[in-house]
Write a structure and sequence with these properties.
The chain is of the alpha+beta class. The protein contains 4 helices and 4 strands. It has a domain of about 100 residues. It is flat, with a radius of gyration of 23 Å.
Length: about 150
């Protein structure tokens, strides 16, 4: 019985090493063949730093005169659905169509990546921010909690 147990453990260990080696060799090797690149859709790749820079650069001006000039958009994705967080921006000096297109691309890439990696996570919904125009800047309302979880 002890010999059978040792044999089973050795087989499982060997299979694990082979599986790890196969996944590592395909992930780390550069894909220089254009045919290989065309088979990989942009949606299965993580959002690029350039895409993130474009989004942040487009939404960096958060100046406002009133809260009606403030807005937000869900960005990122969670394994159970919904955005990872919200990006607050001013509607005054922004191309909202371009921002929406860039964020949609980012979100789709993130969803497809999560799906392709079979990622799981805690199923918590990111709450939408309540906005204010404070000191001529769009921002989330700071909610100070008093007491503890029993409502005191």
């Amino acid at each position: 019985m002890k010999r059978l147990y040792s044999t089973v453990i050795a087989l499982i260990f060997s299979a694990t090493l082979v599986a790890c080696e196969n996944s590592t060799s395909t992930a780390d090797e550069p894909q220089s063949d254009s045919k290989t690149e065309s088979k990989t859709t942009k949606a299965t790749k993580l959002p690029t730093p350039e895409l993130i820079e474009q989004i942040v650069g487009l939404a960096k001006d958060v100046s406002c005169e009133s809260v009606s000039e403030c807005s937000f958009i869900g960005i990122g994705a969670r394994p159970c659905g919904g955005p990872d967080k919200y990006l607050i921006y001013s509607k005054v000096n922004i191309d909202q169509v371009k921002l929406t297109a860039l964020v949609d691309d980012y979100n789709e890439r993130k969803r497809e990546y999560i799906k392709s990696q079979m990622q799981v996570g805690v199923c918590l919904v990111a709450p939408e921010p309540e906005l204010e125009c404070k000191e001529q800047r769009c921002q989330a309302v700071s909610k100070v909690r008093v007491g503890h979880s029993l409502g005191m």
